[in-house]
C-alpha cells in the first residue's frame, strides 16, 4: 500500500479547490420511486420532504409506469437477473435482439446495436468509423460524452459555433480534401432545450458529401409527431447516418443506450466498438421493460401529446408571469437568471416551497448565463404545473425579477 | 512582426469563437479560464497555429495556460522561433 500522506493531501486539496470554486456537487437521497411527487432527504439526515420533481429526464412519465414495472418483473422471472457476459460471448438473449429490432423500426433507421449506456455509445462510435485521414466536425456545445468519444478517435477535429450554419459550411469547405467527414451534433441541446437545425445540416451534408451523426438523448420518444425524435421533428427521417440515444431518459429512465443508423456502421460497431466488446451486456430486466416502453409509445402518442401540451402551458404561463425564458418548444425550459448566486438562491427557496429544481452556472453553462433549468414531464398534472408556476411567481417577486429582461436582471445582480 | 502576429491570432479567435462581432478581446484577455474558448475547442486553436507556422506543438507544451491568452500563445510560438 502506498497511499501516502502526499497522495491524500493532494486529493484533499483538489476537493478543497472544487469547494472554493463553488462547483461541489452533492447528492440528494430520494426515498420513493421516480415520479411527479417524490420524497427527498436533504440535507442528509433531514426528515424526508415531499416535493414536485421538475428536474428529471422522465419526459414521458414512464420511469415508474405500472406496465413497465410489470414487464420488468416478467423479464426477471423469465430471463433471470444477470448475464455475466459481454454481448458476443454469451450475453445476447432473444429479448436483446427484439429490442434492437424495435428501436430500428421506431427510429426509422437501417439497424441498431445496444450499448450499456449512451455515454458508451458515444465513447465507442467515432473510433469505429473514423481514422486519421478523416474529419469530425462538431457543434461546439455537444454533450460531454461526445467530447470524450471524439477524444478517443484519431480523426482530425473541427468545430463550429453553436448552430451556426455558415460556420459549419466554412468547416466543410476547409476539410474538403479529407477522406471521410462527419458532422456531429446533439438533436436537442440539454442546457438550452434548443433544437439542432437538422434540415439545414442534412442539406449541407449532401452538398459537401459528409455524414451526419445526432445524439438524440433528449428527444427520442417525444420529439416529432410520433415521438421518433429530432429527425422526425425536422423532417429528415432516413437522412441521418448515425443516431445515438439513451434508454435512461424518456424511454423508462433505467439505463442503456444504442447506436442506430446505417447498416454497415452498426455491423462495424459489433466488430470494433470497445464499450460494446468489453463491457457487460444490458440486464434482462431492463431489456424486457424497454421492449414494453417501445410497445407503449408505438401504440399511442397520448403521452408525447400530453407532454407537448404541458410544455406549452408551462412556457406560456411562465412567460406571462414575467420570466425571461429561452423560447422554444422543448420540455427543457431554461429560466434565465444570469447570476450564479441568484440561480442557487432561487432554487433553494423553490425547494422550500416544494418545487425541486436545480440552478446551473459556469462551467456547466457559459459564464454569465446562469439559470434554473425546469424539465416538464407527461407525469405532471395541471395542478402540479400550476403549483410550480405559483411558487416561481412568489419567489420571482421576492427577488424582484418579474417582467425584467436580461440587461435589467444583470444591472440588479451582476454576473 | 509581433504586432502582425498578435493581430493574426486575435482575428482568428474573434472569427472562430466570438458570436457577436461587437465583443472585443485584446492580447491579454483570458480565453480559456474565462470560458471564451473551452478546453476542448482549444485543440482547433492548436491545429491552426501548427498549420500556419508549420510546427508541431507537443502535448506537454499544449497546456490550457499556454493558450489562455494571445500573449501566452506568442510566448509559446517564440520557443519555436516563429514569433
Ligand atoms: C445528450 C446526452 N448524451 C448522452 C447522455 C448519456 O446517456 P447515458 O445516461 O445513457 O449514458 C446524456 C445524459 O446525460 C445526454 O444528455
From TrEMBL, chain A:
Pathway noted in the entry: Amino-acid degradation; L-threonine degradation via oxydo-reductase pathway; glycine from L-threonine: step 2/2; Cofactor biosynthesis; biotin biosynthesis
Cofactor binding note from Swiss-Prot or TrEMBL: Binds 1 pyridoxal phosphate per subunit.
EC category: transferase
UniProt-annotated binding residues for substrate: 143, 373
InterPro entries according to UniProt: 2am3keto_CoA_ligase, Aminotrans_II_pyridoxalP_BS, Aminotransferase_I/II_large, AON_synthase_class-II, PyrdxlP-dep_Trfase, PyrdxlP-dep_Trfase_major, PyrdxlP-dep_Trfase_small
Keyword field contains Transmembrane: no
Subunit structure: Homodimer.
HAMAP family: 2am3keto_CoA_ligase (MF_00985)
EC number: 2.3.1.29
Gene field: kbl
Gene Ontology, cellular component aspect: cytoplasm
Reactions accelerated catalytically: glycine + acetyl-CoA = (2S)-2-amino-3-oxobutanoate + CoA
Record-listed pyridoxal 5'-phosphate binding positions: 190, 215-218, 246-249, 279-280
Gene Ontology annotations of biological process type: L-threonine catabolic process to glycine
Family: Belongs to the class-II pyridoxal-phosphate-dependent aminotransferase family. BioF subfamily.
Species this protein is from: candidate division WOR-3 bacterium RBG_13_43_14
Keywords: Acyltransferase, Pyridoxal phosphate, Transferase
Protein name in UniProt: 2-amino-3-ketobutyrate coenzyme A ligase
One term of GO molecular function: glycine C-acetyltransferase activity
Occurrences of domain Aminotransferase class I/classII large (ranges): 50-391
Residue positions where N6-(pyridoxal phosphate)lysine is found in the record: 249
Function: Catalyzes the cleavage of 2-amino-3-ketobutyrate to glycine and acetyl-CoA.
From TrEMBL, chain B:
Family matches, as InterPro entries: ACP-like_sf, PP-bd_ACP
SUPFAM superfamilies: ACP-like (SSF47336)
Segments passing through the bilayer: none
Domain Carrier: 1-81
Pfam families registered for this protein in UniProt: PP-binding
Protein name: Carrier domain-containing protein
Organism the protein comes from: candidate division WOR-3 bacterium RBG_13_43_14
